[in-house]
Amino acid sequence: MISVIVPCYNEEKSIRNFHREITEVMKSQATYELVFVDDGSRDDTLKLLQEISYKDEAVRYLSFSRNFGKEAAMLAGLTYASGDAVIIMDADLQHPPSLIPEMIQRYYDGYDQVIAKRNRKGDALIRTGFSKLYYKLMNKMVDVKLVDGVGDFRLLSRRAVDALLAMNEYNRFSKGLFSWIGFDEYVIEYENVAREEGASKWSMPKLINYGIDGIISFNNKPLRLSIYFGLIITLLDLLYIFIIFLRILIYGVEVPGYFTIIASVMLLGGIQLIFLGVIGEYIGRIYYESKRRPHFIVKNTNIESAEAAANPVYIKQQSRV
Ligand code: UDP
Ligand code: MG
Question: What is the pTM of this model?
């Protein structure tokens, strides 16, 4: 059995099309379930999902109490999917269902992760440029390998899913996690597809924040960097002090020094603030991890195993028994 996980946030315009196309493909492939995760949509996404689930018994849905983000939606899907393999894909048909037969074939060939990789055709040139630069930098900084164009569209074997679920961190950066768990990967390339309905939820500031998350989630190299930077500046400083001291010995004390003082105070101040920010970022993460809050709250579902999660009172009664 294969589970298809679909995070949906305000996708009322896409869901019907998506459901039709995915059903077309999956029917001929294997027994399957479709796990739709409604990430607190404000439109009629949930209503549509319920409607579809009455007609199609392969449809499972799970609805969050508010918008928790795509990472949480994927995690919920992975938690409640019961398939031997799982395919994660977007609701907006930017991940072509026509790739699925080959993905499943590769899974049968023994690959634990079958990754669909898009090219950047049709993307804005600046965005493409920034992305390329980002991945170059990123791969120097972090321990896991990240590839441009590789997103969340992929097939995961059961053991890969279990490995992902074993990582219970609050700040989830899936791109990194997928790479971190390892296993044999197979990459299928496909042509980029433009979104047909609705709008992308990614703005430039969101992308930049996501980029910073990526760097910080995976190691402490930015902190290491601050040590090296500090050391270099200290050495340069010592050299400068030595030179000035020699000058004083030779020429005596010169009073004018306004420029050097202001320049060094400003520069050092700036550098210190940057690295304070870096440290703060890590402490912030520790703060969030230490709260151990749930990644999402389920409000509504037709998945039996998730029903308890959708009803906190039920959980309480159970734990009392
Ligand atoms: N999504 C979600 N929660 C969010 C934002 C997005 O579940 O907070 C879903 C969205 O419904 C879609 C997928 O994640 O199925 C990808 O989102 P989008 O198409 O906006 O991103 P893009 O394709 O532009 O990267
Ligand atoms: Mg999209």
Answer: 0.78
